[in-house]
Every structure is written in structure tokens, then in C-alpha cells.
Amino acid sequence: MLISRFSSVALAALLLTVASAAGADPVTELAAVSTFKSVDLDKLAGGAMQIARGPAMNFPRGLAVESVYVLRTPVPKALELHEQWNPNKHPELKVYLHGELSAKPTLAEYQKLAAAPGNASVKAFAAATQKLGSGATTLQMSNADVKAFGSQAAPATGGGALPPKVASFWSSLLQQRTQAFLSGGASRLPPYETSGETIRLSDEIAHLLKDAPKVRSQFGALIEANPLTGSKTAQPQSAYWEMFDVEGLAAVNLGALFVRTSGDTCQVVDGQFYASGGYYALLTFYQMWPVKIGGKDCTLVWRTDLISAAELATLHGVERMGSSTAMMRETKKSIESLLKDAGQNP
Fold this sequence. Notes:
By secondary structure, the protein is an alpha+beta fold. About 35% of the residues lie in helices and about 25% in strands. The chain has helices spanning about 10-20, 25-35, 40-45, 75-85, 120-130, 145-150, 165-185, 200-210, 215-220, 220-225, 315-340; strands at about 50-55, 60-70, 95-100, 240-245, 250-260, 265-275, 280-295, 295-310. It has an 8-stranded antiparallel β-sheet, with helices on both faces.
């Protein structure tokens, strides 16, 4: 059906482009699929990185950032570094808690929430949770979740920065979201409804991908082969939850990684499919190519972040540029932390 919309000339040109990219060396392929038309592998191997705004989006809530860097290790090890990386070890990233999830997560795997630090951000999160049902809220969840908090009994024991009832509520919500996702993907997740409109994760992801055509082209097989961005049933390579700061208010999220290897290259999508604040959806794509630098096996990484957030819809012109600059800054900090953990000091 889709192919019938192409003229024979356009289809031939498309096939030629794809074939050329597939047979190209990594740097040439990078130039074809990204905003980076020129990179210096030696500088990247020395800890430098390049980062830029991604394609402009028609989707009002969407924003894209691209980056490229080198890990001085072969592709399999580079994949392992990304999969096992824990941002919680870097205070500057303001990720307060990070928990890996098993293939069949139990409620106990979210109990670490009770150990949240007693800082102002976490206390604000606890206060906002305790006000659920009493009026408008900035916390992102369904209306059913709001009602569930009001009817939930407080555990008899517990303490810390998060009151027992708050910790229990969020542990249950995260587990329920994880179970829903693992059973049917993005389409099975309850919507965000506390903003005054109904926001569905699957719609947000579809809008982001629609406005990122080069990502769709480069990662087409991976996008289709998982229940986060496509229609196929597949278990994630790994899954996790976190607590982090969003401008003075802590938030919790859920994420999953899906991986596709082809020959000696590797593709990854890290999708954060629930967040209580900050954004609705965050997709991070990684293309990893093997390269030789100084006679050593290294990995060239092209990273693209696609984010959907309520606040972006209200920004225009300079304000929107400022938002993308802030996202680039945070992305740069994240990559620098990863490079440090890999033994590469930017």
C-alpha cells in the first residue's frame, strides 16, 4: 500500500540511497543519516563529542537533540557499558535513585523508593503526592490513579523522606505500569490525564517518530520490532526505574532498552515510557559502528534524543531555542559521565 504511493523514479532513488548508506564506511553513513557532516575520529577518541539540535518538529510538544562520540572499546563492550550504566553515581545529573528490573518485576523491586534522600526536591514530591484528590496537580498520572491514592491505606510501618503511604502508592503505580507495558507495550499503558487533557504514550511516540524521518529510516527495523515504538511483541534487553529532579520537584520514571544487531553494528532504543513529571515520553536511539582508531577497535556512537513534554507546546522562538539548548547541555553532561565511567576523561 505504501510503496504504491511512490513513483518508480522516486522508489529507485530511495533504494539507491539506502544501498549506498548500507555499504558506506561509518563516517560516511553518519554524514548521510545525521546532522554531523564532518567528524574527527581522533578528537572524538580523545574524549571530545559533538552535539547539535535535531530536526525541527511540527509536533508542538516535540524536541530533538543529536550527539556523536567514540568509546575506545569494541561494539559489544560499548553496548554493555550503555546497558549497565548507572547515572545515580554522578550527583551532577540529579538522579537520586536507580533500580534495575527483572524479567518479571515484583513489588519489592520498587521498595528502594523508601530510601529516597531527604532533600527539598523529594520533600516537594511527597507533598504534591499527599495533596492528590484535593485539586489540580502537576503530577502526571491517570484520574484512576488519583482516586487510588485517596482510597489507599497507609502501611503500618516505614519512614524516611517519603511517608509510608506515598512510597507505597508510587511503588504500586510503577509496578502496575511496568506490568502493563510488558504485557502489551505502549498501547496498554494508562493515559496521562491530570493536565486537563488525555495524553497517550503511543500517540506521543508516533508524533515524535513522524517528525524524525532520518531516525525512522535508520532504525526502521528496530522501531518495528518492539512493543514500545512498533507492533511486535518482544521482551526488553533490560528495564529500570529511577527517581530524578525536575526543576526542584522529584519525579519517577520507567524505561526499557531494546537492541538489534546487524553484522558488526548495533542499534539500541532506550525508551522511558512513564514519567510522573518533566516529560511524557523520551526516546533515545543509539547507532553503534565499529571503527579503527590508532590501530585499536573502537565504537562510533550516534545518539538521537526525542522528547515530548507539555511545557514545550507553550514555547516559541527564543524560548524554544533556549529549551533545546538546555536539553543539549543535559545530554552533554550525561555523555561526559558515561565516558568517565568508561575510563575516558572528556
